[in-house]
Design goal:
The structure is a homodimer. Helix content of chain A is about 30%, strand content about 20%. Chain A is of the alpha+beta class. Chain A has 3 domains: about 1-80 and about 210-240 and about 335-434, no CATH class; about 100-200, Rossmann fold; about 240-335, Dna Ligase, domain 1. In chain A, the strands form 4 sheets. In chain A, strands 1, 2, 15, 16, 17 and 18 form a 6-stranded antiparallel beta sheet that branches. In chain A, strands 5-6-4-3-9-10 form a 6-stranded mixed beta sheet, with helices on one face. A 4-stranded antiparallel beta sheet of chain A has the order 11-14-12-13, with helices on both faces. In chain A, a hairpin with a 2-residue loop joins β7 (about 165) and β8. In chain A, α2 packs across α10 and α6 (about 215-230) crosses α10. The longest helix of chain A is centred in the C-terminal third of the chain and has 28 residues, at about 405-430. Chain A is globular and about 65 Å long. Chain A starts with a helix and ends with a helix. The relative contact order of chain A is 0.18. The interface between A and B is large, with 52 and 52 residues.
Chain lengths: ~425, ~425
């Protein structure tokens, strides 16, 4: 790792533009108490095994817009920070299996995305470096469950169908001590894993078949309120306004009133805040499925009338998300501009922060030249270019400007951890559920 | 941190020369099982809070020559790996104090070495980054116990005399939840800390007033034997031969027979091994105090007659170590050539590996132009130049040569951890002692 690899990442030190954030200043001033604040909360709500958080940085506002408990993209992290990953993996795995341990990693079904398989390969190699055996087992039966893929580094990784033997799962000759899901379970909790004695992490109850983004942001809102009080800022600066609608049918045009009212309410909320802070931009909201991932079923809206007059194509796009699931529940979320752009390209950049257990282990920018500052960058068919963070998120430098890159990365790490903590509270709530 | 700082470290990618090591090859092949091996052993013997290990790399042999449980030199680590330190500190501190925590850091008495105070400053800042309050308290009473020092970064750090209040210690207005010793207690276990309810780490029983290097190397020898069996190499390749003498008085010329016999025995052991491996170098041994630090009381010997005919100056040098302690116990240790040299300078380089809890968090080379490959580089008045490791010690790269720098650093990390594990077993033995 080290210097050679660092230099291999292009534009590593590119200055990202953006107005100086009051929040970055507050975070810097109070770093030690902030870390203490997190220590106490992680004790009460153990962190998810791993988490990635999509952030939007509007300069005046820094907020999470999506929190993924089955993160892909580990292949996009800066190799210089792989040691942070291995260390954190050791902590995370030790909590599940204190002694030597075999891991069964469960990937997405049917993915043909080579970047996704690079992610699986990166996870396997990180787990091995941390001292664990890792093999990849599919929820699909033969023949779809058996495949192999070649990593860019030449290594071939085999996927085998998982076998259920009584109350445990295995691969031939390989009995894992726990199952690590990298499959977000969009189509339901898999019967293959039901009732097994081995731990399954993250909990299948937090798969997208069951999890609601609005539940996450409800937890996040509470935490943001508490944290903002702690560092003495307006919670809105780190928290996107949202509403939700419970029974929408885009095809049948049912639930449009709830949608339109919610869009109105969120836009009005943003307008008040923009006025308070003298922000000249036009407010917008993001309408998206309350379950599901991969940025399917997402639209940018600037006026309530837009959700009343969807054409057939738009309705089709919104109605169905990953694995053919129908959208019924919808999240209407404040759009946060991303004002980070890269160099001369005028490309829009969205930071994604990665955590393993309670530790920030890196991140990258999704960079997209063909999209605007008010669009979702994690959309279907989106070809983003990943740019690994140059700095870790845990080494702020008080001698430099609050928006110097190590300080900005620290701010990303704090907000990313707030979102991961909200997810940890979802986990606790799911565990308490009947 | 990141790129800017990395580039600020001079000669970072300088290739260190040295023959390809069979051991590096074995370590690379078996990385995952090696990490598992360590997992299991750390569960049985919890790691010391922090450790630094001086290694010697002879090309054909890689072995620890000193293991410090009160390490200085944290200021010499590569800032790019500070995030590893913060993460590991959180693990280490959480084990002692699960909730929010104040730390009392106890430095050396009477040190005027500005590098040493930079080390204390680095520790304070790393602890703060990890989310802990840290203040520096002296074992000395007023006025010597009160001082302040300015770090190179401009920050001023205050040292205050520790106050004993009943069965605990404090600074004015500051009651710590544990005491972190960076003072090796050469002159004895401090009465100020005796019987307090707060944990004191590392255990004062492992201060140099009580700890024997030969006990450490006895533990290390057992571990090296076990580990060498595990990876199928000759244990000598990672373990220096040694003998010890229990009652030597250099001034009175007592114990010379034991010294001379031990020197003979160790030289003969080395000769046999050099013959077995066709090594042309001349064997040498290092004679040093069995307690104590700072490289005082150390000599290089090539023949037993040398310890029989010490002149007054040599005897004086060997008789007294740090804080005026008299040498009675002596360690006679196989000298390991250091064949690592830096660039065109022909400077001799000795790697020092740093651990926090069970995690390798970096290291540096001690570089010394005025010394030979068969001399101790940690000697009194020694002016070494520190060169931070460019790579972490946990990211070997199997696609590259076994002695490529990430792989060599991995080997350093493994041998460093073996020594730290030996120290962990010393800790357990000390805890079991009456």
């Amino acid at each position: 790792m080290g210097v050679q690899h660092l230099q291999a990442v292009p534009h590593l030190t590119t200055a990202l533009t953006g107005p100086l954030l009051e929040i970055e200043e507050r975070l810097l001033e109070r770093q030690t108490p902030i870390e203490q604040w997190f220590h106490e909360r992680w004790l009460a709500s153990p962190a998810p095994f791993y988490t990635s958080v999509d952030l939007r940085n509007a300069g005046f506002k820094l907020a999470p817009v999506d929190t993924n408990l089955f993160p892909a993209g580990f292949n996009n992290l800066n190799p210089a920070f792989h040691p942070l990953c291995t260390q954190a993996l050791q902590i995370a795995v030790e909590r599940l299996c204190p002694t030597a341990c075999r891991i069964l990693l469960v990937p997405e079904n049917h993915s043909r995305n080579t970047y996704y398989w690079e992610n699986i390969g990166a996870l396997v190699e990180l787990l091995e470096r941390a001292g664990y055996q890792a093999r990849v087992g599919s929820l699909l039966p033969e023949p779809a469950g058996r495949q192999s893929f070649s990593l860019q580094n030449g290594r071939v990784i085999a996927v085998e169908p998982i076998e259920r033997v009584g109350d445990s799962v295995a691969l031939p000759g390989y009995k894992p001590c726990f199952v690590l899901l990298n499959n977000d379970l969009s189509s339901g909790a898999p019967p293959l894993l039901a009732g097994i004695t081995q731990p399954v992490v993250p909990a299948p109850a937090l798969g997208w078949w069951n999890r609601l983004k609005s539940d996450h942001f409800t937890q996040y809102r509470r935490l943001a309120l508490e944290f903002a009080g702690f560092i003495d800022i307006d919670p809105w600066l780190i928290d996107p306004i949202f509403r939700r609608c419970g029974s929408v049918d885009f095809q049948k045009r049912e639930g449009e009133d709830c949608l339109a009212d919610s869009v109105d309410a969120v836009l009005e909320g943003i307008r008040l805040k923009y006025r308070e802070y003298d922000i000249a931009q036009e407010p917008f909201v993001i309408v998206k499925a309350d379950t599901g991932t991969y940025g399917m079923g997402i639209m940018t809206v600037r006026d309530a009338s837009e959700v009343r007059h969807l054409n057939r194509k738009q309705r089709n796009k919104m109605a169905v998300i990953k694995e053919g699931q129908t959208v019924e529940r919808v999240l209407i979320q404040e759009g946060v501009y991303t004002f980070e752009t890269l160099g001369d390209e005028q490309a829009v950049a969205e930071p994604v922060v990665y955590m393993i257990d309670r530790f920030v282990v890196g991140g990258f920018y999704r960079i997209h030249t063909a999209r605007g500052a008010d669009e979702n960058l994690n959309a279907p068919g989106m070809q983003f270019r990943p740019l690994a963070f140059a700095d870790s998120c845990s080494s702020p430098d008080k001698k430099r400007e609050p928006d110097a890159s190590p300080n900005r990365f620290y701010a990303y790490g704090v907000i990313g951890r707030l979102a991961a903590l909200a997810a940890a509270r979802e986990l606790s709530a799911a565990a308490d559920a009947p």
